[in-house]
Specification:
Layout (H helix, E strand, L loop, with lengths): L1 E4 L14 H9 L3 E5 L10 H7 L2 E3 L2 H7 L2 E3 L6 H4 L7 E4 L7 H10 L2 E4 L14 H18 L21 E5 L3 H12 L3 E6 L2 H10 L4 E5 L2 H8 L4 E4 L25 E4 L20 E4 L2 E4 L9 H30 L1 H4 L2 E4 L2 E2 L2 H6 L7 H8 L1
Parallel strand pairs: 1-2, 1-4, 2-3, 4-5, 5-6, 7-8, 7-10, 8-9, 10-11, 11-13
Antiparallel strand pairs: 6-14, 12-13, 14-15
The structure holds nicotinamide-adenine-dinucleotide.
GO cellular component, one term: plasma membrane
GO molecular function: alanine dehydrogenase activity; nucleotide binding
Catalytic activity: L-alanine + NAD(+) + H2O = pyruvate + NH4(+) + NADH + H(+)
Length: about 375
């Protein structure tokens, strides 16, 4: 298959969808890979490394789209890319169609095949191509929190781990899923006293078994949250209710009960945030202060660490990219249900219910579309 790797053109996106080692894996199966010049630079990979792995470097994005049967990307295509997409071209990337009608309509109009990372789903309902980014954001959260707890950054001026003779900071984590677990590990490793709250008692039991002694678990409810925020130095929001907006576990009035300089990192901001006063911020301007409480609400945290994020993402995506390249999209989706669940838009038809529901469009049975395409 002819595979194209364009450079991401979305603002501040430094990740890349294939590393040089990914290229050499694909070459083993005889595939042809065109890489846009400087596509990997933001993540630390030079054109010469891609060439050494067997890719051909093309100077312009248009040439990559023109040559490729499959485009592998990180972020959804943006307006300047729409016209480059060819009928029947396969795009394998994050789309998040439910958040953009314009993108949905553009992909329908281009009659492309859109295989979305975010809906590739295992039988146990886990989302293997979303987990790596939650792991990155989870591990970043205490790091960012520690930074903004410093006095010059408007925080309380407390060191997460304390020192001999001085108590460590209290870290409260709301949600003990992927983000919450990774955040707890890092915060505990830095020596903080950590409390993880979740509504899932089974999950709290598992966490209690595996976490070190400086991590407590507690049932998440309004009473416990109100009590915990009074002495928390750092609060990390990490809840998710799949397919729904995050619940506001910390409401506006609760800020007054916190100590000045408390820091809140709401990782769940991409789902609306679990802190009422949260609104999305960027890496250029990551925080704002309300009632002397520092809010960090960056919606694309992994973007700040593109080297780690690219490797984490491609570790997870490459096995699927290889399957699709080897079998073609139809063969791969018929062979692997996980990939079939990733199909969102196929040759002008919406085949993913969530996307159709979001924009009041007709949903076509994915099996019908696959059968017709054979
Ligand atoms: N900002 C970013 O850059 C970034 C990056 C990655 C992920 N995220 C977001 O982080 C959030 C968490 O993702 P995840 O992968 O950890 O999800 P997950 O499904 O693994 O975990 C969510 C947890 O929240 C718990 N929960 C639900 N309601 C709760 C409540 N009322 N109180 C306490 N816990 C509750 C669930 O039981 C579950 O354990 C998501 O919104 C995700 O989109 C943001």
């Amino acid at each position: 298959m002819i595979i194209g790797l364009p450079k991401e053109i979305k603002n501040n996106e430094n990740r890349v969808a294939l590393t040089p080692s990914g290229v050499s894996e694909l070459k083993k199966y005889g595939h042809t890979i065109y890489v846009q010049a400087s596509a990997g630079l933001g993540s630390g990979f030079k054109d010469t490394e891609y060439e050494a792995a067997g890719a051909t470097i093309l100077p312009a994005i248009e040439a990559v789209y023109a040559q490729a049967e499959m485009i592998v990307k990180v972020k959804e295509p943006i307006a300047p890319e729409y016209s480059m997409i060819k009928e029947d071209q396969l795009l394998f990337t994050y789309f998040h169609f439910a958040s953009s009608e314009e993108l949905t309509q553009a992909m329908i109009a281009r009659k492309a095949i859109c295989l979305a990372y975010e809906t590739v789903e295992k039988n146990d309902r886990s989302l293997p191509l979303l987990i790596p980014m939650s792991e990155v954001a989870g591990r970043m959260a205490p790091q960012e929190g520690a930074k903004y707890l410093e006095k010059p950054m408007q925080g309380r001026g407390i060191l997460l781990g304390g020192v001999p003779g001085v108590k460590p900071a209290n870290v409260l984590i709301l949600g003990g899923g992927v983000v919450g677990t990774q955040a707890a590990k890092i915060a505990a490793g830095l020596g903080a006293h950590v409390t993880i709250m979740d509504i899932n008692l089974t999950r709290l039991r598992e966490l209690d078994d595996i976490m070190p002694a400086n991590v407590d678990t507690q049932m998440s409810n309004t009473y416990n949250i109100r009590e915990a925020i009074k002495t928390a130095d750092l609060i990390i929001g990490a809840v998710l209710i799949p397919g729904a907006k995050a619940p506001h576990l910390i409401t506006r009035d609760m800020l007054k009960e916190m100590r000045p300089g408390t820091v809140m990192v709401d990782v769940a901001v991409d789902q609306g945030g679990c802190i009422e006063t949260c609104k999305p911020t960027t890496h250029e301007d990551p925080i704002f202060v309300i009632d002397e409480v520092v809010h960090y609400c960056v919606a694309n945290m992994p973007g700040a660490v593109p080297y780690t994020s690219t490797l984490a993402l491609t570790n997870a995506t490459l096995p699927y990219v290889i399957q699709v390249a080897n079998k073609g999209w139809k063969g791969a989706c018929l062979f692997n249900e996980e990939l079939k669940r990733g199909l969102n838009v196929v040759k002008g038809e919406v085949v993913y219910k969530g996307v159709a529901d979001a924009w009041n469009l007709k949903v076509t049975d994915v099996n019908e579309v696959l059968a017709a395409a054979l």
